[in-house]
Amino acid sequence: MKFFLDTANLDEIRQAKDYGLIDGVTTNPSLFARESEDWRTLAEKICRETPGPVSLEVIGQSAGEMIAEANELVKIGPNVVVKIPMTLEGLKAVNELTAQAIDTNVTLVFHPLQALLAAKAGATFVSPFVGRLDALAQDGMEVVGQIVAIFKNYDFRTQVLVASVRHPMHVLEAALLGAEVATIPFAVVKELSRHPLTDKGLEIFMKDWEKVKK
Ligand code: G3P
Fold it and tell me: What is the DSSP-derived secondary structure letter of residue 158?
């Protein structure tokens, strides 16, 4: 299972790299808006720093605009994946970009049928937003399970990239369902390592070691 970091923050990317817990990065306009650096300069740095694919999102709404932007975005780094919104125009763009051998990540996916359309268009990744679905009392992980099943039924090569991850249970369920990727906020990545019994056990070992040393 691949872990992508859902961030445009270089410091988080570097820290996750030190832990060996980063296989790629996903960004979006909202994540860039949290950073102070010029977005293009920052995107170049993110691409250099990241050991794997980096999703950069288009802003245009028409297929033509998205395709033109995609061809600019891929110049930022050899690992750029172009993030395209799940619209009919977006599908048109994904079809064309697939023909141009440009990797795509279809974003803002909230239903298995949207994922099916993205896969048929040749998307490299499809991003169901589980946290935003849960917030509307719809089961985000159920959608992921259905997408995984559909892709398996038809041997689609499109990878399921679980996005809008809010907590460790989302990561556990994504792993159990066999999603290829989860894109995770750095705070949640760190939470995955924690267990109170680990802390307690370590404390006991350290105390007992004091006795051994005497
Ligand atoms: O990067 C796409 C997705 O993970 C965004 O999540 O937290 O804005 O719902 P969020």
Answer: P
